[in-house]
Specification:
This protein is globular. The chain has helices at residues 22-34, 45-53, 72-78, 95-103, 116-135, 149-161, 178-187, 209-214, 231-234, 250-262, 288-293, 299-305, 322-333, 342-350, 356-370, 378-386, 389-398, 426-440, 445-452, 456-466; strands at residues 14-18, 38-42, 60-64, 85-90, 108-111, 168-171, 196-200, 239-243, 264-265, 274-275, 279-284, 308-311, 339-340, 375-376. The protein contains 20 helices and 14 strands. The longest helix has 20 residues, at 116-135. The protein folds into four domains: 14-135, Response regulator (Rossmann fold, 3-Layer(aba) Sandwich), CATH 3.40.50; 149-311, P-loop containing nucleotide triphosphate hydrolases (Rossmann fold); 320-398, Helicase, Ruva Protein, domain 3 (Orthogonal Bundle); 399-474, Arc Repressor Mutant, subunit A (Orthogonal Bundle). It is of the alpha/beta class. The two termini are 38 Å apart. It has a five-stranded parallel β-sheet with strand order 2-1-3-4-5, with helices on both faces. It has a five-stranded parallel β-sheet with strand order 7-8-11-6-12. A two-stranded antiparallel sheet has the order 9-10.
């Protein structure tokens, strides 16, 4: 790795540039230097991990997803608690990988070739968030926002189980806020003044799980150059939050079960066990009982963790909470006083949000970035959801065009441009309008969705219900 920094009069922040294409790195380094950034380079995933996890982490990183050896997704999984906000770089054929990167916590994305006019404000936003995290200003726990019955039940659960000492299992789709709920449970407990230590099991290499959880003694294995306390001892007296629980290897599951039951651990290389006082909160987006039946998760550990289970609702199950949540999240992504107009609120509420709160947060980042003023309208929100650079790239790669000859569904398509419904049934009126717009757009799903003012998934679902076999399903 080239560790030399570009000399600048006043640095706008440090940026790690990760790409295995030497020519691309050279061009981007010059562009970043002109923007006033202190640039470091990594030519592969291993160098990137070293830069992110050793010494002072950079303020932001630009990470290519497709690299030989350790790719960008692996870097995201293994970066641990590094506070650096990472912007992924996507090219042809990497759109689905970019989706996966966002699920792994990437800050945002940019499509190659990179537009510096878009890059500059995005980098400034990423650097500001990283620097707030480094300074500890992100310490306040995010609120559990919403007025729906489902979210009220979550709040009641937190209030009831927080003061207990029992193990908690949190279930929910990716992005539903499992770690936020874990933080609130910890704060509601008698352990609130003690450490809350988090482990994302998906980010730890399989061979290092035991050392990460239980620690090791110097010389216990090759590379063990110093004693390592491990997360159990780091969390002693407090709470250990294990996210992505289903990723734990079976051998580590057995030792976790023993630690839960005996309240003792044995670090690697030690001849005696060490007592620990730790409360466990575990979380997963998987069907854990299904993992048990498949032989990937221990049945005894499953039942040991099922003392106090809770299921977090997906965002689509509580649409009444979407706008209040968006307004709360907007305060986290910008200092501008943005106001959502009625159409913007409707646009947010009409989308399914398969990525839940995390996806909403990323869309709001883009909305804030591209807003011309403080007022946010529905057109901008829909553009950021359905017609942003990323959505267009996804559509170009995955959409199968519905040709005019395929527009014959189970009933003949009317040939008139203006459809006069023969019935007052609202569903029939809606169907005829959708089919007319689809025909006018030459069967293009994305353009039709934009013209109708609905999201692409909703349109695809309606077309399937009407009997169309080819709807460009992602």
């Amino acid at each position: 790795m080239s560790a030399g920094s570009v000399p600048v009069a006043t640095s706008a922040g440090s940026v790690l540039l990760v790409d295995d294409d030497t020519a691309f790195r050279f061009a981007m380094r010059k562009a970043l230097a002109r923007l006033g950034y202190d640039v470091r380079e990594a030519q592969n995933g291993r160098e990137a991990l070293a830069a992110l996890t050793q010494g002072e982490p950079p303020d932001a990183a630009l990470l290519d997803l497709r690299m030989e050896g350790l790719d960008g997704l692996a870097v995201l999984r293994r970066r641990g608690a590094c506070p650096t906000r990472i912007i992924v770089l996507t090219g042809h054929g990497t759109v689905q990988a970019a989706v996966d990167a966002m699920r792994l916590g990437a800050f945002s994305f940019l499509e190659k070739p990179v537009d510096t006019e878009v890059l500059k404000p995005l980098l400034a936003q990423a650097i500001a968030e990283t620097q707030r995290a480094k300074s500890g200003k992100d310490a306040p726990v995010p609120k559990i926002v919403g007025t729906s019955r489902a979210i009220d039940e979550v709040r009641r659960f937190v209030a009831r189980v927080g003061p207990t000492e029992e193990t908690v299992a949190i279930y929910g789709e990716t992005g539903t806020g499992k770690e936020v709920v874990a933080q609130h449970i910890h704060l509601a407990s008698t352990r609130a003044g003690k450490p809350l230590v988090a482990l994302n099991a998906a980010c730890v290499p399989r061979e290092l799980f035991e050392s990460e959880l239980f620690g090791h003694k110097k010389g216990a294995f090759t590379g063990a150059t110093a004693d390592h306390a491990g997360l159990f001892r780091d969390a002693n007296g407090g709470t250990l939050f294990i996210d992505e629980l289903a990723e734990l290897p079976l051998e580590s599951q057995a030792k976790l079960l023993r630690a839960l039951e005996m309240r003792q651990i044995r670090p690697i290389g030690e001849s005696r066990e060490v007592p620990v006082d730790v409360r466990i909160i575990a979380a997963t987006n998987r069907d854990l009982w299904g993992e048990v039946r498949a032989g990937r998760f221990r049945e005894d550990l499953f039942f040991r963790l099922q003392v106090l289970p809770v299921m977090l609702p997906p965002l689509r199950a509580r649409p009444v909470d979407i706008v209040p949540l968006a307004e709360e999240l907007m305060q986290r992504v910008t200092t501008r006083k943005h106001v959502l107009d009625a159409d913007a609120r409707a646009a947010l509420e009409s989308y399914d949000w398969p990525g839940n709160v995390r996806e909403l947060l990323n869309v709001l980042r883009r909305v804030s970035l591209f807003a011309d003023g403080d007022a946010i309208d529905g057109a901008l929100v829909r553009r950021m959801i359905s017609a942003s650079v990323f959505a267009q790239a996804q559509a170009e790669r995955q959409e199968q065009r519905v040709m005019p000859t395929q527009l014959q569904g189970p009933e003949p398509m009317p040939q008139e441009t203006t459809v006069k419904p023969t019935t007052t049934n609202l569903a029939n009126v809606e169907r005829q309008h959708i089919e007319t717009v689809l025909q006018q757009m030459d069967g293009n799903i994305t353009r039709t969705a934009i013209a109708l003012g609905i999201d692409r998934r909703t349109l695809q679902r309606k077309l399937r219900a009407y009997g169309y076999a080819s709807t460009g399903e992602d």
